[in-house]
Design brief:
The chain is α/β, with parallel strands linked by helices. Helices cover about 40% and strands about 25% of the residues. It folds into two domains: about 150 residues, Rossmann fold; about 180 residues, Dihydrodipicolinate Reductase, domain 2, CATH 3.30.360. It is built from 14 helices and 16 strands. The strands form three sheets. Strands 3-2-1-4-5-6-15 form a seven-stranded parallel β-sheet, with helices on both faces. The protein has a seven-stranded mixed β-sheet with strand order 10-11-12-7-13-14-16. The chain has a two-stranded antiparallel ribbon with strand order 8-9. The longest helix is centred in the last third of the chain and has 17 residues. The protein is globular. The chain starts with a strand and ends with a strand. The model has no long low-confidence stretch (mean pLDDT about 90).
Length: about 350
């Protein structure tokens, strides 16, 4: 069997970008998805093998997995799609990766740690923008201050987001926020805390969101108190604040259908991504009042997702993996993010 990977959801915005980057870098994934016309056209464009199946077609799914070493799952929302793919990977003893940002998915993956070890596979969700850069920043701060008990992370993406990302965010809009407190994931109201963040290039008001690091940074660093901030456009911020009081209404099926119908298709163009970048900031502190602070500057989020996912894929195909549930930084170190061209890390304090 040749060493390659299955890229499921290849015809989505991010999946298509990863497919293109893989082909340009000499990787030969087997691409797959439900949309026969789109998958076939993409495969022919890049000279790749392809498979057509939905995740409930167990026999076709298992057949496809027997042909590869690794799965890179890119078909969201992952709260709906990750479980059948994870179960298939465990059945067939194949490594699992995805590009999720959903806390519930990270925790579900963590709960499969022993099963993954027994199967001899690695389960690593979040191999894209969420959570590779912030995960690496978190571990870097922990390495600088081993006694850290509190961790704050923030990011500011200057590019626009894709249809799929907006769809997932909209689906979760009525669910409030989350932080980690004393080791436990704790619900908090949407926009629970706001503060000014100095990203280096500029200062921005940022608000807490239930970002994936609320789950993953704990596994990577052991720090028990974690919160994540981002810069949100004023119109989106108003909607999030409204969700504190009308979350039940915003989560209702008719309202969700309306909100989802208003999401524009596609995502940023190549030129938009080339012009954009992402700024990240982090601070760790301990019980004695000591603090450390660092920043990252990386390529635009979707570009980084494609590059990070393929960097980790290559490592696994080369035999560089740890069985069980893993996070990017825990397996590959805080400097993993520095392998992505265009990334700069700066220690501020």
């Amino acid at each position: 069997m040749k060493k390659t990977f299955l890229l499921y959801g290849a015809n989505g915005y991010t999946g298509e970008l990863i497919t293109r980057y893989a082909a340009e870098r000499g990787l030969r994934p087997v691409i797959a998805g439900r949309n026969a016309e789109a998958i076939k056209a993409l495969a022919e464009k890049h000279g790749l093998e392809y498979r057509i199946f939905s995740l409930d077609e167990t026999e076709k799914l298992d057949t496809a997995l027997r042909e590869v070493e690794v799965v890179l799952h890119c078909a969201g929302p992952f709260s709906l799609t990750s479980r059948p793919m994870l179960e298939a990977c465990l059945r067939n003893r194949k490594h699992y990766m995805d590009i999720t940002g959903e806390i519930a998915v990270f925790e579900a993956c963590a709960a499969l740690d022993e099963k993954a070890k027994a199967a001899g596979i690695m389960i690593m969700p979040g191999v894209g923008f969420d959570v590779v850069p912030t995960d690496c920043l978190a571990l870097h701060l922990k390495n600088r201050l081993p006694s850290a008990t509190h961790l704050s992370l923030a990011f500011y993406g200057k590019g626009r987001i894709s249809h799929g990302t907006q769809a997932t965010m909209t689906m979760n809009i009525g669910k409030g926020g989350a932080i980690r407190e004393n080791g436990k994931i704790t619900p908090v109201p949407a926009t629970w805390k706001t503060q000014e963040i100095d990203f280096g290039d500029e200062k921005k008001q940022a608000t807490t969101i239930p970002w994936g690091d609320v789950a993953t940074a704990y596994y990577s660093t052991g720090i028990p108190n974690i919160e994540v901030f981002t810069v949100i456009p004023p119109s989106n911020l108003r909607l999030l604040k409204l969700s504190r009081y009308l979350g039940w209404l915003l989560a209702a099926s008719p309202v969700q259908k309306y909100l989802q119908s208003k999401i524009p298709p596609g995502g940023p163009s190549d030129k938009e991504r080339e012009r954009s970048k992402t700024l990240l900031w982090g601070r760790a502190s301990d019980a004695e009042g000591r603090t450390v602070e660092s920043r990252l500057q990386t390529p635009e989020g979707y570009t980084l997702t494609a590059l990070a996912a393929l960097t980790i894929t290559r490592k696994i195909l080369d035999g560089n993996f740890t069985t069980g549930f893993q996070t990017p930084a825990r397996s590959y170190g805080a400097d993993l993010i520095l392998e992505i061209e265009g990334t700069v890390r700066t220690d501020v304090a």
